[in-house]
Amino acid sequence: MSFLVYPAVDISEGRCVRLLQGRFGTETVYSDDPVKVAIGFCRGGARRLHIVDLDGAKTGHAANRELVLEAVRSSSCPVQAGGGVRSLEDVEEILAAGASRAVLGTVALEDPEEMARACARYGERIAVSLDVRSGELATHGWTVGTGVPLEDALASFKAAGITSFIYTDVGRDGTMAGPNIEGVRRVAELAEVPVIASGGIGTLDELRAVAALRREGVRGAIVGRALYEGKFTIGEANLAVDSLTEEG
């Protein structure tokens, strides 16, 4: 059963950055050229990429959309892309550029009818991001608490036909303090469809711990700061998860 590692390419004000615990104003800038970063990950062996317009996610205005689209077009591996995706037209623009999957966040809660339209038209090419802070979903680039419990949101999204989820423990994102293994397991149990985990992975052992949940429905992990700061390479990450898959 395969498990994929997704290097994260997060874009804010035209630069490749990482936030700490989803807080704007904590950006660490890693490159002024996100497209070059995306190409570099692909050349380094990435099998998938996760690209997000952070400013778009926060405001709903796709400030970095052209950079996202250029990164999608320039990448030699499949890409899932999101951030500021608020309409069916936004989904179509991202998929038309060559993305394998469009990621919905805020719109999934604020406009469920639009989410359902996208899901009905594109099926497995739609994923919903579950950005969780203190047990409830956060929207608008993690800046707005919704008061909606994770379990309630999941039930609603499943009923709409969503076939994959991206779960982020916002409190751990960008910290390299370790993933929320129990949280990931719980989401996979409730979702009953493939889940990609995000937040906190800082070592290969932590990556393996997430990959060990693949039989429970966790089919991938998004890794950001650990790759940018040289804790391990994408090639080493692939080897680590492949070794688990080979073990069965």
Short description:
The chain has 248 residues and is an alpha/beta fold.
Question: How would you sum up this structure, described in words?
Answer:
The structure is a single chain. This protein has 248 residues and is an alpha/beta fold. It is built from eleven helices and twelve strands. A hairpin with a 4-residue loop joins strand 8 and strand 9. The protein has a single domain, classed as Aldolase class I (TIM Barrel), CATH 3.20.20. The model has no long low-confidence stretch (mean pLDDT 93). Strands 1-4-5-6-7-10-11-12 form an eight-stranded parallel beta barrel, surrounded by eight helices.
Detail the topology: elements first, then pairings.
Elements: E1 4-12, E2 15-20, E3 23-31, H1 34-43, E4 49-53, H2 54-59, H3 65-74, E5 79-82, H4 88-96, E6 101-104, H5 106-110, H6 112-122, E7 126-133, E8 136-139, E9 144-149, H7 150-160, E10 165-169, H8 181-191, E11 195-198, H9 204-211, E12 218-223, H10 225-228, H11 234-247
Parallel strand pairs: 1-4, 1-12, 4-5, 5-6, 6-7, 7-10, 10-11, 11-12
Antiparallel strand pairs: 1-2, 2-3, 7-8, 8-9
Helix pairs in contact: 1-3, 9-11
